[in-house]
Write a structure and sequence with these properties.
It contains 14 helices and six strands. With 323 residues, it is mainly alpha-helical.
Length: 323
Amino acid sequence: MANVTKTKSGKWRFQVTVNYKATVKTFETKAEGYAWEESLRQGKDNKTPVMTFGKLLEKYRDEVSIKKKGERWERIRIEKFLNDKIANIKISDLSKSNFAEWRDRRLKQVSALSVLREWALLSHCLQVAVNEWEYLTDNPMRGLKKPQGEPPRDRLITQEEIDRLCFALNYSNNAILTTITSRVGAAFMFAIETAFRAQEICNLKWSDIKGRVAKINDSKTYTGIREVPLSLVAMGIIEQCRGIDKEFVFKISTSQLDSLFRKAKGLVDIEDLHFHDTRHLAITRLASKLEVLELARVVGHKDLKMLLVYYNKAASDLVSKLD
């Protein structure tokens, strides 16, 4: 007999156990649920193909990942998953215990944040298999305890580090930006001034700039698509780039920026610094110039809580505002 419960949305959740295997499905009416139970017990509802989890990941890579901006990242992750023993399990045999074991194993190898990123990819693959491909009746990762994430980074770049990195990148405010390295330096300073993400800087076109406003047409999130007012310092950096390329302002790729920024850090012996940390510094500085709603709009945050992740002003720096 099925275990039937009513959900908060008013639907009916049926759990049926056949051959010691529990299957869960939700229906609009009880009648639909009991009809499904009958077909399941008669062996008529088994749509799960005979395939391994690795094959399911490959299908997801070729049909879903290819449509995403983060396709390259997902392909790399999936290739690693294919070498994990969980990839050899048939999807019909997947259970919470398999993913609990994978979670505990990965936590011994990488950080909790890395596991959470991989978790999101695996869980979405399984959810697509449930909702769209109908290979599974339930996501085996649903309800499984996630690892506790690490606290947000609060790394602020110091002026000394800015000076050393600009030296390593051969950048100054009067430099002629003939090399890719010097343009990475310009991108670095532009990010500090505007809170642009690396991808947003690399994608910035001359057609996106109207007067002292830059329009971001392609971003990490929907709210990232925005118009950003440019300071005089930011405009000065833009003018330095004029004449380099007819279409793109900085004429660098994200891979070039990442590689050359890492190289520059090594040259001047700076550790534990990411290019994205420029966003922390930029937002912290802009917070003293803009109201909170203005700031959220400029940096592309819909959730004001995210500003607290990036705003890193020390309490000691706020003392003077109380007197």
